[in-house]
Design brief:
By secondary structure, the protein is an alpha+beta fold. Among the domains are: about 60 residues, Irregular (Dihydrolipoamide Transferase), CATH 4.10.320; about 200 residues, Chloramphenicol Acetyltransferase, CATH 3.30.559. Helices cover about 30% and strands about 25% of the residues. It contains eleven helices and 20 strands. It has a six-stranded mixed sheet with strand order 11-20-19-18-14-17, covered by helices on one side. A four-stranded antiparallel sheet has the order 1-8-6-3, with no helix packed on it. A four-stranded antiparallel sheet has the order 5-4-2-7, with no helix packed on it. A hairpin with a 5-residue loop joins strand 19 and strand 20. It is globular, with a radius of gyration of 28 Å.
């Protein structure tokens, strides 16, 4: 009996993952623990390993497919086991994950291909499968649909450019997924046209009123994919579903600067962010409703503080998590933070590095930003946005102007869970801890 390979649920909030690439092909022999495919979750890439030794069999999804967690993605034939005459039934581990045989042809059909065929009324009996062993894939159904309707697959941007310049999309080869025509394909076709054709495509009167559009003036079309697409989806969902409230406080950073200066004299490095992490943990223990997650109308109040620190990468934003901050010294927080940031920049984060955060800090002070608002990282209920430390004149006790290092903190909280008073009290304690760092030892 073939052994099902399940897409693991890497985190408690993870619902789907996308298969980036198969690292082994069908028919390859693998050992237990060998990586068979790479998948991308919300923020990191992970490898799915073979549960035991055998021959890889029946890859159910193409690279680029989004798959629900806990679904079967492939099978293993144990050593000496022959290929079964029929594909294994998925009723035991996961009914909806595997291919179903098409009764008329005896060929297998992936679940997504079958659903697409039903939605677009494509007769699978007339579809030639391009997958392993003749399996009908999604692209096969799409090509069959194009053949029936004559409709060319193209992005909206590509269609718009084609209309503007009178270009026949059917004469263009698409470079996108499954041959879809992209805006860049239309641009390339436009550049390949002779000058006379470019001039002819615009009416004479219109050429007099508008400047000629040159190929170099065309917009660069960038499709959201991978990490950037995930960030867009999650933040859009967060801002649309969580009613955000924003509270701002300004702190005197003299205590922070004095502490860092004393450590610097001892050749010790301590970042402002590490102090913020420790101070937030100190305050969160006193305000557990902000150290929480919210999912399916249930609020989880966490007994430990796991703080995520946003790290900017070229391809997007990743939030590695420092776990059990309340147990760590400032020195330990700094060391862990440095290690996480380095692994993030080298794309070496493990799934455990980004799991189970209960609160997030986003610090843009090093980029010269004075203040900003941040969107909550679901399923958390709060995030702290941190601006730069800037020297400003403020009145002292006798209303005389004195120069102080000031820093703005902006808290975003989910109003479904956190009331304004609770958020204000949290900020008051956080302000006290940052202005007098010795409180962090209490």
């Amino acid at each position: 009996m073939p052994v099902p390979i399940i897409l693991p649920k890497f985190g408690f909030t993870l619902e789907t993952a996308t298969i980036v690439q198969w690292l082994r092909r069908e028919g390859d022999t693998v050992r237990a623990g060998d990586p068979i495919c790479e998948v991308t979750t919300d923020k990191v890439n992970m490898e799915v390993e073979a549960p035991e030794a055998g021959t890889l069999y029946n890859l159910l999804y193409e690279a680029g497919t989004e798959v629900p967690v806990t679904h079967v993605i492939a099978y293993l034939l144990r050593p000496g086991e022959a290929r079964p005459e029929r594909l294994p039934s998925l009723s035991a581990p996961e009914p909806a994950a595997g291919p179903e045989p098409d009764g008329a042809r005896g060929a297998s059909v992936t679940p997504i291909a079958r659903r697409l065929a039903e939605a677009q009324h494509v007769d699978l009996r007339g579809v030639q499968g391009s997958g392993p062993n003749g399996r009908i894939m999604r692209r096969d159904v799409e090509l069959a649909r194009v053949a029936e309707t004559g409709k060319v697959r193209a992005t909206p941007a590509a269609r718009r450019l084609a209309r503007q310049h009178g270009i026949d999309l059917s004469a263009i080869s698409g470079s996108g997924p499954r041959g879809r025509i992209q805006g860049t394909d239309v641009q390339a076709a436009l550049q390949a046209q002779p000058a006379s054709a470019k001039a002819a495509e615009t009416p004479h009167d219109e050429r007099q009123l508008t400047a000629p559009v040159q190929p170099g003036d065309m917009p660069k079309i960038v499709k959201l994919a991978g990490m950037r697409r995930t960030i867009a989806t999650r933040l859009q969902h967060s801002f649309q579903t969580a009613p955000h409230i924003f509270l701002e406080v300004q702190i005197d950073a003299s205590g922070i600067e004095a502490l860092r200066e004393r450590l610097r004299a001892r050749n010790e490095r301590l970042s402002v962010t590490s102090i913020l992490v420790k101070a937030c943990a100190w305050a969160l223990l006193r305000h557990p409703w902000l150290n929480a997650t919210f999912d399916n109308d249930e609020v989880s109040l966490w007994p430990t503080v796991n703080i995520g620190v946003a790290v900017a990468l070229d391809e997007g934003l990743v939030v590695p998590v420092i776990h059990h901050v309340e147990r760590l010294s400032l020195h330990e927080i700094q060391a862990i933070s440095d290690g996480l940031a380095e692994r993030a920049r080298n794309n070496m984060l493990h799934i455990n590095d980004v799991m189970d955060g209960t609160f997030t800090i986003s610090n843009l002070g090093m980029y010269g930003i004075d203040r900003f608002t941040a969107i909550i990282n679901p399923p958390q209920v709060a995030i702290l946005a941190v601006g730069r430390i800037a020297r400003q004149f403020v009145p002292d006790e006798q209303d005389r102007p004195v120069l102080r290092p000031l820093m703005n903190l902006m808290l975003s909280a989910d109003h479904r869970v956190v009331d304004g008073v609770n958020a204000a009290n949290f900020l008051a304690d956080l302000k006290a801890a940052l202005e007098e760092p010795s409180l962090l030892a209490w």
